[in-house]
Amino acid sequence: MSDPFFQPVSGFDLPRFAGVPTFMRLPHVGLEDPRLAEVQIGLIGAPWDGGTTNRPGPRHGPRQLRDMSTMIRAQNGATGVRPFELANCADLGDVGPNPASVEDSLQRMTAFYDQVLEAGVVPLTAGGDHLCSLPILRSIAKKHGAVGMIHFDSHTDLFDSYFGGTQYTHGTPFRRAVEEGLLDPKRVVQIGIRGTAYDFEDRDFAESVGIRVIVIEEFHRRGVVDVMAEAKEVAGAGPTYVSYDIDFVDPAFAPGTGTPEVGGPNSFQALQVARMLDGIDIVGADLVEVSPPFDQSGGTAFLGVSILFEMLCNMALAFGQS
After folding, report:
1. Residue 98: inside a domain, yes or no?
2. Could you tell me what percentage of the chain is helix, strand and coil, using 3-state DSSP and rounding each to the nearest 5?
3. Measured between alpha carbons, how far is 38 from 71 in angstroms, rounded to an integer?
4. Which of 9, 69, 71, 269 has the largest count of CB atoms under 10 Å?
5. By residue range, what is the domain housing residue 230?
6. Mean pLDDT estimate for the chain
């Protein structure tokens, strides 16, 4: 049973529309707070979209995700898991990026996550664009070495560069992560890839290093259960990062994102794949690319925090079993 301090505020005690919004109504614990040492899973906002190459807006994602997360309750309705009783969870606040500098923001993010990892906290991040994953992986690799990854997305994010040599965009983070030895490519699986393309440079790179790419046609043909069974086999028993781009989901269900691709999973399948991460040694995870300007209703953000909750449940189970 976790410390009562780390229990979320109940909607029976304070209406969900009242109070200062934190992720899932959890206590806020800053990096300088002495209670950081007691936190086991830290929810973190990464309000930065300096890697975006088309429609900006994910820098506003963490704030909307926090607001919509007040609707998350204490128990998973499908599995019965009560994550806040299994692990000490807290909102660690936001990384402070430099919106005028990609390089400085990457360094700031890695420095932030270095502190989180040094405190023994497992990070669960709400982005931000997908370039945010790279500085997080840089910190995780310092502790765990090259990790595996289960990646839900409509894009591989394995391109070498954009605009004649720009190597740090939301389309390149996992190419850099492989090159820097942060990811073990033979333990990486990418699920849901689809859409039109300029070429297959990204998929050629994936094949050359041993990354398993499951395109959306295969996903729909085989179904969630079969695909996730293979994903677990690819990731294996070692430390694994989970990265979930909201544009994995069909834009009919998640329009609030910068680079939507039609033909994706529905919202139930979006939850299913996250729910089926049970048994994976998750050493960090993120949910990225929620862009509030394209869905001011908050529906995309609510789906996003629901996915975060599913991932949190599986992360908490590891602490409950230890």
Report:
1. yes
2. 40, 20, 40
3. 25
4. 69
5. 6-320
6. 96
| pLDDT at 2 (0 to 100) | 67
Between the alpha carbon of residue 144 and those of residues 49, 139, 183, 248, 277, the distances in Å are 27, 9, 10, 27, 19
pLDDT at 320 over 90: no
AA identity, residue 195: G
- Which CATH number does the domain housing residue 134 bear? 3.40.800.10
| Strands, E assignment, 228-272 | 239-245
pLDDT category at 52 given cuts 50, 70, 90 is very high
Global pTM? 0.97
Q: How far is CA 301 from CA 114, 133, 153, in A?
A: 27, 19, 16
- Express each pLDDT in 248-296 by its tens digit: 999 999 999 999 999 999 999 999 999 999 999 999 999 999 999 999 9
Q: Is 241 exposed, middle or buried (0-12, 13-18, 19+ CB in 10 A)?
A: buried
Q: Could you check whether the bond before residue 128 is cis, i.e. omega within 30 degrees of 0?
A: yes
Residue type, 17: F
Q: Which candidate, 284, 272, 269, 293, places its Cα nearest to that of 318?
A: 284
Q: Is residue 28 in some structural domain?
A: yes
Q: At residue 164, does pLDDT exceed 90?
A: no
Q: Which of 61, 67, 54, 52 is nearest to 22 (CA)?
A: 67
Which of 169, 118, 111, 175 shows the shortest CA–CA distance to 143? 118
For residues 266, 269, 273, 276, the Cα torsion angle rounded to the nearest 10 degrees is: 160
* Chain segment 108-120, per-residue pLDDT in tens: 999 999 999 999 9
Confirm if 279 and 240 have CB atoms less than 8 A apart: no
Structure tokens at 102: 């990609």
Q: What is the pLDDT of residues 34-47, one digit of tens each?
A: 999 999 999 999 99
Percent of the chain with pLDDT strictly greater than 90? 96
Residues in the chain: 322
Question: Is 146 a domain residue?
Answer: yes
- Is 1 domain-assigned? no
Domain count of the fold of the chain: 1
